Sequence to fold (327 residues):
Amino acid sequence: MERTSKIIRRTIYTFLKNYQYFTSTAAILAFPASVSILLSESLVPSLLPLLSVIHFRLQTLFDAAGFPPSSQFFSLLNLKLSQTISSSILSIPFTLSFLLLAKACVIHALHHHKVSHQPSFSSFLSLYTPLLITHLCNSFVIMSANAATFSVLFLAFNILDASGFSSPSIILIVSAAAAILYSVILANTLIVCNLSLVIAGTDNCSGFLAILRACVLIRGRVSTALSLALPVNLGLALVEALFQYRIIRVFSHSERLSPSIALEGMLIAYLYSLFILLDTIASCILFKSLKSSSQMDLESRYVYLEQNMGEEDLDAFTYSKNLPELL
Fold:
């Protein structure tokens, strides 16, 4: 398995080597999705009816589950979840179209080694359907991960309340542990979902089967995937903050959209698109590294066991060796 630094260097090298392709075709496809994501996050505070309804529903759910209303963690979690859901609803048409097409364009170019050629629209359009199915399944998996986490927290807080351990200090400690648990589960879920999109675009599978393959490949190598996702997500967060500071703040003070502000906003959205492409390239390189490393591990085990096992046990291991391909 390659180290994180080597994968990052390969990602940057691949991007710079094919700079014209990634900054033209793929970036232009991702541009409308980037604009919708940046604008939706800015428009959420102005859409108070939608945000207040989602916030109220989540607060009712948290109160019914027995979560402590005085906990700052659950108050902040409720607010962030409400904003994320509202932003996702506003940007979902562009996410399901332009964003997936941009990812399909990058995956097709890297998988078929056709980066040097300008591909036709139909060449990577065939990848759109499996990516769309997998993306919808990923949404279900993310909701299931959130529901499972809230169920565990529901049991934990109700057990504490039934046992009489409901002091503010204990609630603070448990809330901190809940924040760590939620962050770890959500980060692992997002990594598996990103990897499943690459698998859907390279292998002949989609949906939950691609997610299952991603879970098999990522097993035991989560730390590498987490450290690889950190720089890209940090870059995306910085671009979002830059858009809020340079565009939304200036527009809210002047209350008019000048040509200079519009041009700067387009440049920031284009920069956001480039980070999305870098994330997709890194996921493709990670997938190739995971696949080759898994194959090498299985082959080394097969050679060792071939010398030390009987024929019946060897047949059983041969079946397990081919299990990722069978899936």
